[in-house]
Amino acid sequence: MLYPIALLGGLVVVGACLALLVVLLAYPNLPSLDVLTDYQPKIPLRVYTAEGALIGEFGEERRSVISMRDIPAQLKDAILAAEDERFYQHTGIDYLGVIRAAYANLVQGGRRQGASTITMQVARNFFLTTEKTLTRKLYEALLAFKIEHSLSKDQILELYVNQIYLGQRAYGFAAASQVYVGKSV
C-alpha cells in the first residue's frame, strides 16, 4: 500500500521539477512588453470635410482608441461576464476556468471550451500566433504572468478593449460600435 503512494509522490515531484525547468528556460526568452507599455495601434487615414464631418477612412484596420475612463460600465461588465468573470481575482491564469474547461471537454469529448483569460488573449493578440500547440499555450501563460506583474488590471483591460478583432475590419469596441450600430461607444 505504501509503494503506490510513494510512486505517485515521486511522479508528482519529478513533474513539478520538469515544469520548473521548462519555466526557467522559457521565461528569459519572452518578448519585451514595450509594445504594450507604449501602445501605438495602426490608425486609419481619416478624411474630413471643412465642417468636420467624416468623409471616409482608408486602411486595413478600423480603429478608434478609447481610454479606460471612457469605457461605459455596462460594456466593461458585459466583457467581463462573457470573457473572464474572475479577471480581477486571478493572476493571469484562471485555474478554476482551466478545471471547468478540462472537465467540460473531457465529458463532451474534444475541445469545446477554452480557458483563456483576458490577459492571455492580450498576450496572444500582441505576441503569439493562433496555432493550437502546447508550446504556444505555455508561452501564452508565461506572458500572462509577465503582463500581470508589469501592468495594472485596468491597463490590461484597456489594451484588450482597443486591440481585440470584432469583424468587419474593426479592431476594438469603439470601432466595432461605429461599424455595427453607427454610434460611439
Compact description:
The chain is mainly alpha-helical and about 180 residues long. The protein is about 55% helix and about 5% strand.
What does this structure look like?
The chain is mainly alpha-helical and 185 residues long. The chain has two domains: 1-29; 31-181, Biosynthetic peptidoglycan transglycosylase-like (Penicillin binding protein transpeptidase fold), CATH 1.10.3810.10. 55% of the residues lie in helices and 7% in strands. It is built from eight helices and four strands. The protein has helices spanning 2-26, 34-37, 73-83, 95-108, 118-127, 134-150, 153-163, 173-181; strands spanning 45-48, 54-58, 62-63, 170-171. Strands 1-2 form a two-stranded antiparallel sheet. Strand 1 and strand 2 form a beta hairpin. The chain is elongated and about 85 Å long. The model has no long low-confidence stretch (mean pLDDT 87).
**What's the order of the H and E elements?**
HHEEEHHHHHEH
Strand order of the largest sheet: 1-2
Annotation field: number of helices: 8
| Total individual domains | 2
Using the alpha-carbon principal axes, give the shape. elongated
Please give the share of residues in helix.
Answer: 40-55%
**Poorly predicted residue ranges:** none
Q: Whole-Å distance between the termini?
A: 63 Å
Give the rounded overall mean pLDDT.
87
